[in-house]
Amino acid sequence: MSKLHSLYGRCLAALLISLPFNAQALLISEVYYDHPGVDNGFEWVELYNNNHLAIDLSGYSLGYGGDDYTTGSLALSGIIASGAYFVIGGPSNIGITFDLSLNFNPDLQNSGTDADGIALFSPTAQIVDAVIYGAVNINDLLDETGLPGAVDVGDAPAGSSIERISLTGLWQIQSAPTPGTGPLPQPQLPPQTPPTGELFEPAPLTLLLPAIMMMAILAYRRQRRGGSDERAIPTCSFGNGLTA
After folding, report:
1. Are 65 and 116 in contact (CB under 8 A)?
2. pTM of the model
3. 23-184 has which fold?
4. For residue 69, what is the DSSP state?
């Protein structure tokens, strides 16, 4: 059975490698927290939907602060279309279209020697995404992994924003803020197209485990019938160029 178990593990590893990588769907993409003069009424946070489907923000929230994310919190609402940006805040700004117009109260932290952060929370209160900005994360603000995160970007001067420039988490200080637009790529459509009126969802991995075990058993039996060297571990192919 040890050889069969080894083949099962190799088949499972090949399957996991073959599964497409799904980038995080909902991201914080830009933050404007330091307006020249008074911040009140001018601050905003921009989100980006990297999913191929629209996302309902009901139940999501923003939390922000320096010691933790409880200095201020804000319940979200609205729908973000696929590949779209969603701007929250700034009712005193002129010439900017806000998808959710409101005032951050208290104001977003302006940062400095000690880093501050803003986190996006799911309806189950899990951190979906976070940006930590300033010098040093002395208070161990958490990032989307649930662990104390590294500082993503320095402290932006008044009138500038901090902007995400990649899906992998690279940020920059943006001297000319761009609410509602940005450099992030459009989401990729899934390879499968569901029938009309049906929503496609990949099968959970737990449902695939019996099939993987069956593939391992069949490959093991083929080796035994073929009279090959029993010390060798048979292979398991998924027909996509990956072989275990």
Report:
1. yes
2. 0.70
3. Immunoglobulin-like (2.60.40)
4. S
pLDDT digits (tens, 9 = 90+) for 85-127: 999 999 999 889 999 999 999 999 999 899 999 999 999 999 9
Cis-peptide into 202, omega within 30 deg: no
- The alpha carbon of residue 170 and the mean position of all alpha carbons in its chain are separated, in whole angstroms, by 13
How far apart are alpha carbons 63 and 48 in whole angstroms?
17
Q: How many residues would you count in the chain?
A: 244
pLDDT at 41 over 70: yes
- What number is the average pLDDT over the span 60-65? 98
- Show me where the domains of the chain are located: 23-184
Using a 10 angstrom Cβ sphere, with 0-12 exposed, 13-18 middle and 19 or more buried, the burial of residue 5 is exposed
Say how far apart CA 112 and CA 158 lie, in whole Å.
12
Report how far residue 118's alpha carbon sits from residue 98's, in angstroms, rounded to the nearest whole number. Answer: 19
Tokens representing 148? 């104390």
